[in-house]
Amino acid sequence: MTVGLMRIIRRADADHRSGVVVPSPDDPGARVDATSWWEYALCRAWDADLFCVPDGVSPSRKRAQEKKAKGICQTCPVRERCLDEAMARGEQYGVWGGLDAEERRELERRRRGLRRSS
């Protein structure tokens, strides 16, 4: 096992003991492309509700969960691909690529503004 993969497994075990093994895109033979990036996403080792907070959760708890999710995203090796996917699909919910839905909408507004002014 490579050092990168061991680091991810140890982090997953220490953080939540999910038992999910997330491979590293740095491992020899890893191929991260448009269809396989998800295999390398750190969020795979976490409960999906952390990244997409269900309805009925208090605003303060939602903010806390989103903050934790964004922290996981910051160290994810496929963060940019995840964000690209969410932006391409117009994803309306959850944390993707380290940004929540409102932050992605703001990013899209900025991108549109830059395209118009060019």
UniProtKB/TrEMBL annotation:
Compartments reported by the entry: Cytoplasm
Keywords assigned by UniProt, alphabetized: 4Fe-4S, Cytoplasm, Disulfide bond, DNA-binding, Iron, Iron-sulfur, Metal-binding, Transcription, Transcription regulation
Top-level lineage group: Bacteria
Residue numbers binding [4Fe-4S] cluster: C43, C73, C76, C82
GO biological process, one term: cell redox homeostasis
Post-translational modification comment from the UniProt entry: Upon Fe-S cluster removal intramolecular disulfide bonds are formed. The Fe-S cluster can be nitrosylated by nitric oxide (NO).
Gene Ontology MF, one: protein-disulfide reductase [NAD(P)H] activity
Cofactor note: Binds 1 [4Fe-4S] cluster per subunit. Following nitrosylation of the [4Fe-4S] cluster binds 1 [4Fe-8(NO)] cluster per subunit.
4Fe-4S Wbl-type domain boundaries: 42-106
Cofactor dependence: [4Fe-4S] cluster
GO cellular component, one term: cytoplasm
Stored InterPro entries: 4FE4S_WBL, Whib
Family label: Belongs to the WhiB family.
Matching HAMAP family: WhiB (MF_01479)
Function statement: Acts as a transcriptional regulator. Probably redox-responsive. The apo- but not holo-form probably binds DNA.
Protein name as annotated: Transcriptional regulator WhiB
Organism (species): Jiangella ureilytica
